[in-house]
Amino acid sequence: MYQISAKGPREAIEPAWDALAWTDPSPAGAVDAKEDGRHAWRLDAYCETAEEADACKVIIEEVSPQLNVVIEALEDRDWVTLSLEGLPPVEAGRFIVAGSHILAKSAPGKTPILIEAGPAFGTGHHGTTLGCLIGLEHVLRTARPQKVLDIGTGSGLLAIAAVKTGSKRAWGTEIDTDSVRVANENAAKNHVANAFKTFETGGGMNTTIRKDAPYDLVFANILFRPLVGLASEIERLTAPGGHIILSGLLSPQEPLVRKAYGNRGLALVKRVRRDGWSSLVFRKAG
User: Fold this and answer.
1) What is the CATH code of the structural domain delimited by 84-284?
2) Exposed / middle / buried, residue 60 (Cβ in 10 Å: 0-12, 13-18, 19+)
3) The CATH fold of domain 2-76
4) pLDDT digits (tens, 9 = 90+) for 33-42
5) Pairing between β-strand 70-73 and β-strand 2-8 as defined by DSSP bridges
6) What are the domain boundaries of the chain?
7) 269-272, long-range: CB within 8 Å, 24+ apart, which pairs?
8) Same CATH fold, 84-284 and 2-76?
9) Residues forming a β-bridge with 44
10) What is the rounded distance in angstroms from the CA atom of residue 62 to the CA atom of residue 43?
11) What global pTM score does this model have?
12) Residues near 101 by Cβ (< 8 Å), separated by ≥ 6?
C-alpha cells in the first residue's frame, strides 16, 4: 500500500483532488482532501502498487505543479480499519455514532448508532456524513419520512439513523460489494435489518427500488458529478413534499448542484458546511 500526499493552498489542492477522483480509471483507490490548518489544505491518496503511486504523482503535478508530492510506502495492513480505531464518538443533534465500547457509556436521550471500525465509508467523522446527519435532524423537525432511499449508502449509517427515528423502510444502493456486506451487517447490529437492506447497484436503477418509489427521503452522499448526473432520477424517485439530502461536494461545487436540482422545482431548505464540504437539503413541492 502507498500513500501519496501533498499540502498547499485550497486552489491547488481542489483541482488535484478532482483530477485524481475523476480520472477513469483512476490509479488511486481512495482520495481525500481536507483543511490542514489555517489557509492550508492536504490531499491524501492511496493505492496498491508503486506504479499506481507514480501515476498519481504525475496527475497531481500536471494539474497543480506548485505542489510538492510525497510518496510513502505503508506497512501491509488494513489501513482503513486501523485509521478508524480509537476515533472519538460523533454527536450530531440527537444522534451519537460510535463503537460498542463507547455506546455502552453514551449519554441518555441520544439515538445511538453502532458503527465499528471497518472498510465502508461512513463513520460520521467525515464532513459529508456529519453534514447529512445534521440535515436529517433538520428534516425531522417538520416531517417523519416513512420510506427512505440511501444512494451510495457506504456503512449504512444514514439509513440506519432514519429507521431509528421512525422511518418504516429504507433501501440502500452501493456499487462496492464489501460496502453492501458491511451495510447489511450494520443493519443487523443496530437491530434494523427488518427495515433496511442494501443492494449492489448504481443509482436508483434496481427494479425493487424503482417499484417501491416514491420515497419520502432520499440521501445521496456520493460525488459531485454523479450528484449532478442523477438529479433527474433522484427528483423522480422523491415523493411530493419529500426531502433530498445531498453531499460529497466541496463548497465551491455548490452552485452547479443547486442549479441542477433547483431547475427541477426543488427548493433548498438547509445548507451545512463542515471541513470544506457541503451538504444540501432540498424539499420537493407538494
Assistant:
1) 3.40.50.150
2) buried
3) Alpha-Beta Plaits (3.30.70)
4) 777 766 688 8
5) antiparallel
6) 2-76, 84-284
7) 269/138, 269/243, 270/135, 270/138, 272/130, 272/131, 272/134, 272/135
8) no
9) 5, 32
10) 15
11) 0.69
12) none
